[in-house]
Specification:
Number of helices: 8
Low-confidence stretches: 1-23
Number of strands: 17
Helix content: 10-25%
Distance between the termini: 50 Å
Number of domains: 1
Keywords: Signal
Largest sheet: 11 strands, antiparallel
Amino acid sequence: MPLLPVHARACLLAFFAPALALAQPVEPDFAARTAALVERHRENVDALLGDARQQGMALLVIPTLNLDAEPQRDFDDDATRDRFVRQRSTFVHWNHKSEKDYAISAGAGDHATDPGPQFQTVRGKLLYQVIPVWPGEYRLNRITYHQPRAELPETVPPQSAMERLKKIGIATLDYTVDREFKRTGPKPPSGNEDDDGLGKGCEVLLRAGGGCDEAAREVRWRINGEIAFNAGNADAAPAPGIEAELTFSPIAAITLEAGEVVLTDGFVLPVDQPVMTPDSCEDTSLGPTCSIDSITLTRLPASLDDFRQAPGASSFNLPKLDAALRDLAYRASTLYYKPASEAEPNVIRAVDRN
């Protein structure tokens, strides 16, 4: 059974945002349609993941950061919201060694170009994500993220191709424009958010599982910004942003066989990474392209015991997936770079090999 398009939920929110501004509480028909959409998605996810191995695929369970582990954020604060958007938009991509259209992408955000994780569950600071994967060897060699409130760097004349090849990788940057809101009128009284008909937590994002509370709050912040703007209680203004794509020499690799259910360690990119080569950005047809001096990733160790203590698939009414995850086994990825130090075994720093 095919899944709904990844962008279906975003389109639904965009379509009904004006209605949310005109009527409170939301008409029952909207809440009913939302509930039906969530239920259909649950059934599809259970079928996709539960039957993946019978279709010749593997299941990979990999952790990323649980953004709900921190206290509730004040999204009215620009810096707080920018940091959250950067963290949530960061995806770590493992590309297939020989099949260019096959990839694994882990991250808490909305996967617009691939299926991504279809189920996730939280345990402490970790968000475990379950991803259907075609067999083969996958290499961690690409990361993407959105950096709000940022301008493109100054560019320099083309440099030596040999010098660029000596670097660990390159960053390709693209200019984007975000829409930001500043409230000018009184803030509406806080009430029951469920009255807006969008559901709770991961229901708002049309994702099965947990770990979506802060993301749902940020979605509601943007919808409420549109509502306030339409009512004359907020200003809207464009804000510059950057879409960044980092491509680099592989940092880790893992091989998966058809029918396997594998748990492995995750990796995340700290917000102060990567380290760009000074004065290295050149104009190209893809936008400014800059050399990378180094990339430091944080490894997130996974364990079967820790994963088993997180809410299971059965907690979210996913019986087929719950049965499949009983065969879960841990496998470490192959690291191509050593930890930064014995004192920091989970800090992996990749630099050029000169």
